[in-house]
Amino acid sequence: MELKNDVADSLGAKVASASQYRASREYEFDAMIFDLDGVITSTAKLHFDGWKVTFDEMIAFLKVSHLLPLDAPEEFNKKHYLDYVDGKPRYDGVRSFIDALGSDENWLGAKVADQVRDHSTGSHRHSSFIQFITSAIQENDYPLSDPISPENLEAAIDQWSHDPGKLGTLLDQCAVNPKHLDLLLETLAKRPAVLGDIIVRKIGDIKDKWINDKLNDDSVEIVKFQHTLDMIQAANEKGINIGIASSSKNAKKILKKARLMDLFDEHLIIDGIVREEMGLSGKPAPDIFVEAAKRMGVPVHRAIVFEDASSGIKAGKNGNFGLVLGLARSGNHQELKENGADMVLTDIGDMADPLQEMNRWYLESLPKTCQRLTYMGTPMEKDPEADPEVLKARFRAEQALQTVGNGYFCTRGADYEERQGTDSWGYAGTYFSTIRNTRKSVIEGQPVFNEDLVNGINWLAVTFKIDDGDWFRPHESELLRYEKDLNFNDGAFTRRLAFRNPDGKETEVAARHCVSMADKHLAAVEYRVTPLNYSGVIVVKAGLHADHINAGVGRYAKLDQHHLERIAEGGKADGSFFVSVQTNPSPVSGKALKPAEIAAAAHVVVELGGERRQPRFEIETADRRVDASFSQKVKQRQTLVVHKLVGLHTHKACTGTPGTLDDARRTIADLASFSNVLEASALKWAKIWQKAGISVAGDRLGQQALNLATYHLFVMGSEHNDGGIGPRGLTGETYRGHEFWDDILYYPVISLQ
Questions:
Q1: Residue 607 lies in a domain
Q2: Which of 214, 266, 288, 478 has the highest local Cβ count within 10 Å?
Q3: For the segment 147-182, what is each residue's pLDDT rounded down to a tens digit?
Q4: One domain, residues 419 and 303
């Protein structure tokens, strides 16, 4: 089925018909929209130098004026430039860096206001920092005539409180008269947020003056990226629309100085001046890219964005553009990829035939981006200053969305090495559609019976250690990269990471797992460990764990969440092991509740260098828990592969016989690798998508969201589901797994297939 989309972009602009824009018959895209600096021209050093001069002076004057926080840097550096300034509108960059120096937003406005109030007598004109922010003012520019009163200034500030440009002009006008400046500062001291806005504006103006002086200097040349220009020339010859979306207010000056204006239609240059005039938001908002596409009359899904800064990459991604191409001029390939770049190159010259290679990406790779859900990095890395509980909730939400399953049971996309507990970042959970348990709790002296969807056996558990080191825990380690990917097509979850030990040893770990859609009792893990810069002994531990409680939802903590009791656990030296548990329902008057049984059997297969190994396993057991470990010498760049094959069976009424565990063992008896499980499951998924897949033209984010929703419908409601479907499906413990009216919405869609 195919649905035609009448939306050109995420902002709701109408798509122009093919006759309204210059469409390419040869290519799948019709427009290319470029950032300027770092993509077409190389003014990054010029801009960095301008920011460094400006911010170094600012830091020095803040220090002299006793305004600089104790832990602030002594100077502005390249990392500051990339993290806070690069790609952003000028004043946004200033605010971002100033905010990073202090403990909270507008700390500087508040400190300057305090200082003004503390020195309410005498002139403020000669304080070092005030001198600095008025340094770009020419004497007698914009003078205000006497008399001027606090009332007049209050009225002006009220009128322009949301227009920093006019407030900056007010400072210019007052700065040429010491009395006026003192009066303005005393008035602004009552409004520290407004004072902070003016400070940001004036520091940005100081940097802009420095840049303009350089652009007017005939000895300064603008470096151009020739491969980009060659591609633009070829695109023009092919009738492909070309535009520029730059945060810089000096974009046209730079193009003229570089003698490049003839390549572009001036109407299609959306720069900082146009952005401000139109009231558009700066990057990472997509507004200026979307405006360029609108002016061309090209729908965003048929336009390519070229960027070298993370903020610009985010803007292209947020705008739902067909292809977002990152140019890692600073070697920041991973950063651009983590922020949403579809392709990352060092230079356009990395492509032998850019137009053809990008066209091939549209044909072959674009559909695949809509068939998976990928997270680059962790919330903890991206926003380390945020509330840890907020970050934990965000990370656990990702794990819920990346659940794998087959309707009979589902498993969250958790880390294999994660310790289960309230203090852990993630939360491993496996839920069976028919396994619920009733427990009696006493809340404020009153008995409460709570029925819960039970978090069953954690079959994902795999970790390792190097020589005699500590067991690997990803979020207690120095991560070099971290990526999680869920493929809707075959229901496989993949996680790739690399980390560095305190002793400098670097290791790459690539792991994946799936729950079979072909055999509802079957699951598997493939876990690969590669030493990158060392050789040593790798000790791997794989386990089956049921020694936890339901702890996925904090507000249920007062309820009795102990749902599992031991039946048996054990293992053998050949790498086979098992756990069997049962639920423990509380007696309920008038109901004959019986315990349900959950049994898991696992077998581990080991490969090194493509050859099967047969190590001797050590088995360690505890209540409702078993771990099997082995040691293997691994050379630098060799890959140790662990296949963990798992059978899971349940019985609604525990009989006390070994039948359920025997069934679990038989499920994995003839399997030797992860691929055995995934291939059969992928064939089943292919049949599901053939019937249930819906295609949306022209909206990649909409297509991805639709595919994700369809995937989850079948993960929780396939033919293997013997129970019902709750609001959270089988992805977590919210609503305690209760079923309401939600399945009225789900089942008609599923039954039609």
A1: yes
A2: 288
A3: 678 888 888 888 887 887 788 888 888 887 788 888
A4: no
